Amino acid sequence: MFDFLKHKPKKAIPTFEPLGIDIHCHLLPGVDDGSKSNEETLACMQVMNDAGFKSVICTPHYQYPRFPNEETDILNRFDSLRIDLNGEGSPVKPQLIGVAGEYRVDSGFADRIQKNQFLLVGNRFLLVEFSLHQQVIGLDQVMFDLQMKNHEVILAHPERYPYYSSSSSKLQRLKDMGVYFQVNILSLIGFYGDGSKRKAYEMIDKGWVEFLGTDMHNTLYAQALIDATHDRKVIKLLETHKFLNSEVTSPQPFKTKNI
After folding, report:
1. How many domains does the chain have?
2. Which of these, 29, 1, 2, 9, lies nearest to 226 by C-alpha position?
3. CA–CA dist 97, 22 (Å, integer)
């Protein structure tokens, strides 16, 4: 089923080796719109390994009611995945070093903040996303409440929100509040359209972007990642810009807050 690796003449090159860690992907099978099986996860991880990634942190969606995931269940599933994949023979490469979440700021998010029940990227960062269709109401208050809980917030793929330009005053406000930005690697090659590509590079040029992530979902994304490793502009970007991925560590992959 996943024989695209055998037939595609182009192979990934280690363009993303300077990043080291992918902090945003959906490779925990069967919990969201990402990977559907261990086989698909392995196929994607093979490409990520060739692309230069040494470690991966899975970040399944937490989005009610579409993906009503629970942290304890996600931890158990991740534990089982690591056992299953390592049971294939040699250790999985890149290494699965932790599981966190991509938390949608939605109608139930205020309750999550109150309970302070999150899985963190590298036991440090809280990865959040917004709706692709409508702006968050009361965003300043949401971010203030998170910071009052001592969370360092990463906003996933700000370039993909059609209601924000790359010079949006609201995005500037988030940067002023200390929010980190994570751009999707595939945005850099136009995978989500020319608008997202343009905004991604503009935000990087403004110095707004601290992290890159694959946002890997399936083998279609993996094939696009192969193309990204050969993109001259992407290669130049990795040579001239410093991102913080490699500074994310996860010495205790299952440590959480109030789980």
Report:
1. 1
2. 9
3. 10
* Tokens (6 digits) for 164: 């924000």
User: At residue 58, what are phi and psi to the nearest 5 degrees?
Assistant: -75, 140
β-strand partners of 258: none
Domain extent at residue 149 = 19-240
Domain membership flag for residue 57: yes
Whether 3 is in a domain gets the answer: no
In a domain, 4, yes or no: no
Q: Which helix (H) or strand (E) holds 180?
A: strand 180-184
The CATH number of the domain holding residue 76 is: 3.20.20.140
Sign of CA dihedral 243, 245, 248, 254: positive
Rounded Cα gap, residues 240 and 118, in angstroms = 34
Q: Which two tokens stand for residue 181?
A: 């930005």
CA separation, residue 188 to residues 47, 101, 133, 192 (Å): 18, 23, 21, 9
Please tell me what DSSP assigns to residue 9: S
93-139: pLDDT as tens digits: 899 999 999 999 998 899 999 999 999 999 999 999 999 999 999 99
- Is 159 domain-assigned? yes
Give the C-alpha distances (Å, rounded to integers) separating 174 from 69, 120, 124, 152, 177: 27, 19, 18, 12, 5
Q: In terms of pTM, does the model score above 0.85?
A: yes
